[in-house]
Amino acid sequence: MLVVRKTILWGLLLLVSSVYAQYPLLLKDINLQADPLATSATLGSDPRFLTNHNGILYFTAKQNGSTVGLWKSSGRNASTAKVLDLPGTAYSLTSVGTSLYFVADQTGYGYELWKSNGTAAGTTRVKDINDGPLGSMPSGFTNVNGTLYFVATTAGAGSELWKSGGTDATTVIVRDIVTGAGSSNPQQLTNVNGTLYFVANDGTNGYELWKTNGTAAGTTLVKDINAGIGSSNPQYLTNLNGTLYFTATNGTNGFELWKSDGTAAGTVQVRDIWSGSMSGMPHYLTALNGTLYFAANDGQAGIELWKSNGTAAGTVLAVDIQTGSGSSDPRNLKTLNGLLYFSATNGEAGQELWRSDGTVAGTKMVKNIRVGGEGSNSTPSMFNLRKGIVYFTAYDDFAGRELWQTDGTEAATNVLELYSGTTGSGISNLTVLGDTLFFTADDGKKGSEIWKIEACMPLRMASDTTICHTGPLSLPAQVANYGSFTTPIWRKDSYDGPIVTNPTNVRLDSTVTTFYLEAQYTTGCTSTAKITIRTMTLPEGVGSIRVLLEGAYRNGVGSMTTTLNQQGLLPGQTPVSPLATKTPAGQPYVGAPWYYMGSEMVSTYDPSVTDWVLVSLRTDPANPATTVFKAAALLQNDGLVPTIQGCPSRLKEYTNYYVAVEHRNHLPIVAATPTLFVNGGFFYDFGINQSYIPANAPAVGQKMQDTRYMMYAGDIVKGTSAEINANDMTVWNQTNGSFGKYLAGDINLDGEVNALDRILWIINNGLFSGVRF
Prior knowledge:
This protein starts with a strand and ends with a strand. The strands form 16 sheets. Strands 46, 47, 49, 50 and 51 form a five-stranded antiparallel β-sheet that branches. A four-stranded antiparallel β-sheet has the order 2-37-36-35, with no helix packed on it. Strands 3-4-5-6 form a four-stranded antiparallel β-sheet, with no helix packed on it. Among the domains are: about 460-535, Immunoglobulin-like (Sandwich), CATH 2.60.40; about 540-770, Immunoglobulin-like (Sandwich), CATH 2.60.40.4130. The protein is mainly β and about 775 residues long.
């Protein structure tokens, strides 16, 4: 009677790419005042304007809940310190050369231009531009070749363009475009290769495109696009390879795409996208690989993704994501990793995460984060990039608006939830310094503070952690590179929850349990990870296969030997011979190179059992990364694996999968044709079907013997590229002459390592499968 203990730990071999395991760390809890409205919580410091100034993070924060201070940090808790308390509120932190500029409010002076060198003594007001308590209200800070340009308002000149070199004397008005107290109201300051472009109204030509070289004489109207007092209202000023692109109207064609080289003659409409007086309204202008991308409406396809090379003929609809007249409405375009990331709807899903290389084939929805029809929007925004990983915020019905990460694939697009539940953690200020992402968030316990995802050796966590029992469970076993770290601390339920005192022996008391791990790497940085364990009902049989093993197969008999079983050498059995060695209980694929962590275990073997095999399902026969299921199972002497057990809900009904089979000392195989998982099960017969053989490769599949296909014997040393070679014979030489042991060198499974095994190796030496495992 075959009795299997139903304690299968499902799928822990599958590891995500290492960077995805890194979980956010709190940089520093700046405001430690107790929150009067929340037990066991503190008020937040409300950090704002996170800015990279020469490799140091600067920001404003309120240590006591009211006084705004200027802070700086090199990315560690100990180095996060206040520069000084400011006299009032502050904003617009901007790095220019050696100075950090910002606007601060001081009693008697109002909002004026300040700077800091990172010290209290070196943090001063640059100039009282507008005498009196109102201040000049500086805005639009823009760095042009080490000079700060901005807009300021004075009683005598109104709102005009200014510049500063960091001293009172070098902080001057560039030009009083509307002379006297009138204002030209400069806006949209944009640096294009050392020339500052902006939009202003000189009182005669309306709001038009201007430029400056920093002198009054060099501050001129580029072109009166909408001739006369009417305004062309240039918007979305964008630099592409030294040419300025923008949206404007000439009064005839509506708002369309324009470009300028800084001359009147070179300032032209690129294309009238919505022909006639209607507006194509290009927006979210974004440069990618020398091409301009934007959202626009031609009156036929709706608001879709467009691209332009600067010519009318080269300004075309890039992708009609929502075909027909409906609008996909691309939003928040951002160039990252050589691709466009943005939010859009295809009419079936709401505003979701998309990416594009500018071609139809290269444009796809990365993930439908908030599942549902049109109107069910996750609306991704605030995109940024750290070490090749795209970070952004998105909303779903389970976590609210939280921080997400992706490498551009659906499988690696996941949420980094800080505020448990549906509240959302109020993510903002995504800022990258070197290899570290900083951002502001409220986890519901510390208030709004600064968090980070830093560059450190990531913890390689298991990607599939659905298990079919409540423990005991070893948390360290869920981390492939656990031994590379020191001082690991496991916590339950939250990053500052109760410490797990015995992480190697954890019992689960809930269907969903979250654990957080912090561990030090040799460089001193802290690696973090979050792992959620889900328990399911006891595993069930999800399929069966038929497969034969050369060597164990008895020619003419039609079945395989059960010698290992008869001699009591299979895992967990008591050997018949007192000279034999007992094999530890449990499936034999826990070690290299499989690292399959399933805890399948047999207490009593049926007499028909030949050995254990490792069975998996993948969606691409050539790619092991597409594996979605893995389980160790017992192979009977007639070739039948009657019950492959696992958590059935991990497989999708009416879905085709390719079956893969591995054995301790046989060349692994993958099915050449997919099998349908239906009604909770699947079946595949390798005995009558040759395995998958890649095209144009001198590879082998299975051996034909007695009119049956069977797995080639002799692959003792396993690798990702399965082959039989001299490495296998090295292991055979080391164990030759052994008996009464469960050894990989025993190729024919007769309980002994001897010349019979070597003969099988000699026959098959040089064969390889051509498939990766």
